[in-house]
Write a structure and sequence with these properties.
Mean pLDDT: 76
Distance between the termini: 53 Å
Helix content: 10-25%
Shape: rod-shaped
Radius of gyration: 56 Å
Strand order of the largest sheet: 1-10
Low-confidence stretches: 20-26, 152-156, 167-182
Largest sheet: 2 strands, antiparallel
Strand content: over 45%
Number of helices: 3
């Protein structure tokens, strides 16, 4: 009596699962390409950034006046002729004209050289350096090919073990995006 096709497929699948689960659970891999699940944490870097603390601004400063001390000669008494009298040798009064030179004195005084003024002064901007963490690469996880010698014996390929013709492990890897050239190479 012939078994229905569905029962035949179920039995073949169960036998294939038992045949493949044994080596995989024992740590070995019988496929042409074996994979492992790899997780990579996010990558962070520290960046330095100049931050403006205060913008440029203009303030007004008062410059005090500048004084100087000046010395100058001033006329105290003009010179000239004056009538002068004095007692003579016999007691009589004698008068005569006497030439007197002018008299001068030195006078000191403060002189304004430059008046007080208000001057605009532009203050430069003030910066400070701030450090902060920046994510360079996100966390990644995925199936990546095993390096040679990582696990058990590597006999045949998964399609060959399942009896699929016309397909190879490289074809399945390309379909999954984990063949050579994957972003997950190197894990």
């Amino acid at each position: 009596m012939a078994l229905p096709v569905t029962k035949l497929v179920l039995i073949a699948a169960a036998l294939g699962g038992i045949a493949l689960a044994g080596p995989a659970s024992a740590g070995g891999c019988y496929g042409g390409e074996c994979y492992r699940y790899a997780v990579s944490p996010p990558v962070y870097a520290t960046e330095q950034e100049n931050v403006l603390v205060s913008p440029p601004r203009t303030v007004y400063q008062t410059v005090p006046p500048v004084y100087d001390t000046v010395e100058e000669q001033v006329l105290v008494a003009p010179g000239g002729r004056i009538w002068q009298t004095r007692p003579g040798p016999r007691g009589e009064l004698i008068g005569c004209w006497v030439e007197t030179p002018p008299r001068y004195a030195v006078r000191r005084r403060s002189v304004l050289v430059r008046p007080a003024e208000t001057v605009p002064v532009t203050l430069p901007p003030q910066y400070t350096t701030v450090s902060h963490r920046v994510r360079v690469a996100p966390a990644r996880a995925g199936w990546v090919p095993l390096e040679p010698g990582y696990g058990g014996p590597r006999v045949g390929s998964i399609p060959d073990a399942l009896g699929i013709t016309g397909g190879s492990a490289a074809d399945i890897g390309v379909g999954l995006g984990f063949s050579r050239g994957s972003i997950y190479d190197g894990y």
